[in-house]
């Protein structure tokens, strides 16, 4: 099946698989139950996915013209301003973060520990237990997580980070998102201050807040199953 019709999206929402590219292969392999058995390949595919997002986002960043001295003359080149903070929700986001860092190697970095604390009937609250971050005021913040399910983790993380400072603009990144999560982020975060980048949008979010078809637990697939808490 080929994509022949594109849906008109808001200016601050980008769905990368709406345009066929090698990203489709990486996401397909991350979803595939057979390929998922190879943890190293899963991590590398997530990292390569981060590299593709980084390249696409780089096109939107502020650039300045600089003169570069070559052995034979001067080349004027538009170079991106080094004013980035890469922020990742642990632990699943580490390979995705590395993909961004491969391209934005001069960026500053922030890390957030967040998890679902379950109660009865699979009801849960999002717990934020640890944040380490540089100053973000006036900088471009790229906030990433492999999965955007309900959107609550991303919302709370954004709010926690912006309590420490106000970025010039924020790019929110999720390779796999639910339609519910996308709608939640667009409803609850300031639209003029964020741009949402997703790889693919899945229509279903179950009563247990699992994305379907999704890909499973990205953290477990990358690093092994964790003990339930």
Main sheet characteristics: 8 strands, mixed
CATH T-level fold name? Rossmann fold
Cα shape: globular
**Euclidean distance between termini CA atoms:** 42 Å
Average pLDDT metric:
90
Low-confidence stretches: 1-6
- Give the C-level CATH assignment: Alpha Beta
Quickly give the structural class. Answer: alpha/beta
Strand content: 25-35%
Short description:
By secondary structure, the protein is α/β, with parallel strands linked by helices. It has one domain: 3-Layer(aba) Sandwich (Rossmann fold).
Summarize the structure in words.
- The protein is of the alpha/beta class and 229 residues long.
- It has a single domain, classed as Rossmann fold (3-Layer(aba) Sandwich).
- 29% of the residues lie in helices and 33% in strands.
- Strand 5 and strand 6 form a beta hairpin.
- Helix 1 packs antiparallel against helix 2 and helix 2 crosses helix 3.
- The termini are far apart.
List the helices and strands and how they pair.
Layout: E1 13-15, H1 23-31, H2 39-58, E2 63-70, E3 73-80, E4 84-90, H3 94-103, E5 108-118, E6 124-132, E7 140-144, E8 147-148, H4 152-162, E9 169-178, H5 179-188, E10 194-202, E11 204-205, E12 211-212, H6 218-223
List keywords for this structure.
Rossmann fold; disordered N terminus; globular; 12 strands; 6 helices; two-stranded antiparallel sheet
